[in-house]
Design a protein that fits this description.
binds zinc ion, 36% helix, 4-stranded antiparallel beta sheet, alpha/beta, 456 residues, Aminopeptidase, Alpha-Beta Plaits
């Protein structure tokens, strides 16, 4: 391992140049105009895998290809690590406020500025370079390695989800590591051990057959906007909990030990939360802390509300319908379909006979949580300690990352979210950047991780 670390240090400049080559490819997955560049990035990654001594295959899908590679030379008795990443990026345009061309990497004070620098090209590339460093110096790896690098993470990721459902066993491994996240500061590396699930829906309230004159019919028909507001207002109790029968039935309760871990983890202080949100005061289930409410409790949120006329001036109309969109964030062991059915039933129960309601399912993803006491977790802790230089904290993520649940549930392995970026790297925004020191620390941590897993 020492030879590999030495090799990585000696090759640092070349590794950076290779990363810059990848950053120059505008692999924006959401915009069809960039499809040739997405393809080009897939081929570039496959080429890199071959160069470092790993097999490489470009798997076509209905949209953007999946790049898959493996090195199984450690044999059937050795552990296998699956490394996930994504080579596609969010859109970026100079006009969005970038100081430099987002696809022309610029290094300033040891920091590279480019779209994808942190999310996720700079992060997943650390694992390729770690494998290269070990293979080139030892001629072998302490574990088998599989690479799964997709091209649709920033635009739905449906192709990979479908592929995992159908061919998931190709990716079977003892542990999956994903570096596509961030930490609050370089001395607080963060392992995310839980992501929330999601189920999205819409409520449409139908009233009169057409829009009506509010003077001629107001006071005689139940206005759909008002009826919808009345329904929505009843979906939470005054204490902030969700008023949907059965909603909390499958929620795994928080243990005292976990509450302590969340309190000492990399979450928000109240001041940081206030500064970030700009909200006048916090709201929600007061018996849970803000960080518990964000990561460990399910929520029901409304994300859109429309009806009638909201343009300039006034239009005196009772609209024929009103619509709201919303989503519930779920924690283990909640099921999106079951939750949707519960919400639908409650909305229908709350709907007055003066209107007709329609509740439609829109999208979903499963929640996932990995036991922090799983031995693979310890491998990641040791890797951070020796490679990064600091012990990690554990965090529950409020957002959803369906690939974690897909791999966890369909392939059956613990998924470790081990981020090598900073919260302040400007992911998805203008001037996304990545400290090259973190890129190199990431490579060292990955080298340590592969050896740590071999000891499990
Ligand atoms: Zn990402």
């Amino acid at each position: 391992m020492q030879q590999a670390l030495k090799y990585a240090a000696e090759q640092a400049t070349r590794f950076e140049q290779e990363l810059f080559d990848l950053l120059k490819i505008p692999s924006v997955s959401t915009d069809p105009a960039y499809a040739p560049h997405v393809q080009q990035a897939a081929e570039w990654v496959a080429g890199q895998l071959k160069v470092i001594g790993v097999t490489a295959e470009i798997i076509p899908t209905g949209r953007h290809p999946i790049v898959y590679g493996e090195w199984m030379g450690a044999g059937p008795n050795a552990k296998t690590v699956l490394i996930y990443g994504h080579y596609d990026v969010q859109p970026a345009d100079k006009a969005d406020g970038w100081s430099t061309d987002p696809f022309e990497p610029v290094v300033k004070d040891g920091v590279v500025y480019a779209r994808g620098a942190t999310d996720d090209k700079g992060q997943f590339f650390t694992h390729l370079k770690a494998v290269e460093a070990i293979l080139k110096t030892e001629g072998t790896l302490p574990v088998n390695v599989k690479f799964l690098i997709e091209g649709e993470e920033e635009s739905g990721g449906e192709s990979l989800a479908q592929y995992v459902r159908e061919h998931g066993q190709r990716f079977a491994a003892d542990v999956c590591i994903i570096s596509d996240g961030s930490m609050p500061s370089v001395d607080t590396p963060t392992i995310v051990y839980s992501v929330r699930g999601i189920v999205g829906f819409e409520i449409i309230v139908h009233g009169p057959a057409t829009d009506l004159h509010s003077g001629m019919f107001g006071g005689t028909v139940h206005n759909p906007i008002q009826a919808l507001a009345e329904i929505i207002a009843q979906l939470h109790h005054p204490d902030g909990s969700v008023n949907v029968p059965g909603f909390y039935d499958d929620v795994v309760p928080l243990s005292e030990a976990e509450r302590q871990m969340i309190a000492s983890g990399g979450g928000y202080t109240f001041e940081q939360w206030q500064q970030t949100t700009g909200a006048p005061a916090d709201w929600g289930e007061k018996q849970y802390t803000i960080n518990e409410r964000i990561g460990a409790r399910p929520t029901l949120e409304f994300t859109g509300f429309a009806g009638g006329y909201a343009g300039q001036g006034l239009k005196n109309v009772i609209p024929a319908r009103a619509i709201a969109k919303g989503s519930a964030r779920l924690v283990a062991n909640q099921d999106p379909q079951k939750t949707f059915d519960q919400i639908k039933a409650q909305v229908e129960r709350l709907a007055p006979p003066t209107v007709r309601v329609e509740v439609n399912y829109l999208a979903s993803g499963l929640p996932a949580a990995v036991d922090v006491n799983h031995p693979a977790m310890q491998a990641a802790v040791n890797a951070y300690q020796h490679g990064w230089g600091y012990a990690p904290v554990f965090k529950r993520e409020g957002g959803s990352l369906p690939i974690v649940a897909d791999l966890n549930n369909h392939v059956g392995m613990p998924v470790l979210l081990v981020g090598y970026g900073l919260d302040t790297d400007g992911i998805h925004g203008p001037n996304e950047h990545y400290a090259l020191s973190m890129f190199h620390k990431g490579i060292e941590t990955s080298i340590h991780f592969l050896y740590e897993v071999s000891k499990l």
